[in-house]
Amino acid sequence: MNDDDSLRQAFQRELRALEQEAPLPHFARLWQQVRAQRERTLQRRLAMTSALAALSLLIAGLGAILAGFAWQAAIPCCAVAFWLAPQTFGALLDSDVFTPVSAMPAIRAGRR
Amino acid sequence: MGIAAEVNDHELRDRVASFYADHWRRLWAFVRRLGADPAAAEDLVQDAFARWALSEAPDWEDRRAKAYLYAIAARACIDHKRRHGRERPLDEDVPGGDTLSDRPLARAWSRLPERDRELLWLAYAEEFSHDEIGSILGLRSGSIKVLLSRARERARACLSGER
């Protein structure tokens, strides 16, 4: 038997020994975590869409006011924008998102 | 949630569940071997699986999906060590200590450099190819052969000192 095989056997033995020490897996807990994270991601996307809508309405309303016409349009636009903004920005700030693997510090800073 | 999304959700759940059952213990062993204590290893592995399940990896074929899972776990370990400092030697975590008497590798392990441990474990315990090891550790696959050969020499030296 060559050295490589004996090394491989030593590692396989060690792997089996460690596998015996491993705690029981908890798939239900994992799946709960995954679902919660997916919901948060969805909420964040929704909040971002609403934020974009609020911003567009605000710009449209302010534009209408500055142009000096269409007060009938400007007032509802600004009203809806001001109503949407705190909710959407609040939702954006609340939703903590998993750091993507590519953005984890070890990746950004180089390996060591 | 629509019917199509529910169906996809069930498919994803089944795929993640089967992958989780197949790889949980091995990945825990890998994370332990990178120096995390048992409780931290459990958290890191759980977190790695969550990240893996939220990525596109569950749609990939098994070996590629497994390599990606190990890459996530290896990176999570590095971050964990940066936040919590150096690991304890593995011997301290094993109750009784004498359980290691028939495991020379476990005793020699703490004397190996960290990079060697990763390389050797992935090559000999998990039997990943050089390309896969390169993608897991973020190294050029061309350099793996040389690094692995040096790591092997150091491991043999450590192991012969244990006998």
CA-CA gap between termini of chain A? 37 Å
Strand content of chain A: under 5%
Number of beta-strand segments of chain A: 0
* Tally of DSSP β-strands of chain B: 0
Largest sheet of chain A: none
> Which descriptor suits the 3D outline of chain B?
globular
Sequence stretches where pLDDT stays below 50 over 5 or more residues of chain A: 105-112
Rg value of chain B: 17 Å
Helix content of chain B: over 70%
What sort of overall outline of chain A do the alpha carbons produce when their principal axes are compared?
rod-shaped
Gyration radius of chain A, rounded = 27 Å
Helix and strand run of chain B: HHHHHHH
Q: Largest sheet of chain B, if any?
A: none
Task: Describe what this molecule looks like in 3D.
The complex is a heterodimer of chains A (112) and B (163). In chain A, helix 2 (27-66) runs antiparallel to helix 3. Chain A is built from 4 helices and no strands. With 112 residues, chain A is mainly α. Chain A has helices at 3-21, 27-66, 71-94, 105-108. With 163 residues, chain B is mostly helical. In chain B, helix 1 crosses helix 3 (62-84) and helix 3 packs parallel to helix 6. The longest helix of chain B is centred in the first third of the chain and has 31 residues, at 3-33. Chain B is globular and about 55 Å long. Classes of the chains: A mainly alpha (112), B mainly alpha (163). The interface between A and B is large, with 35 and 43 residues.
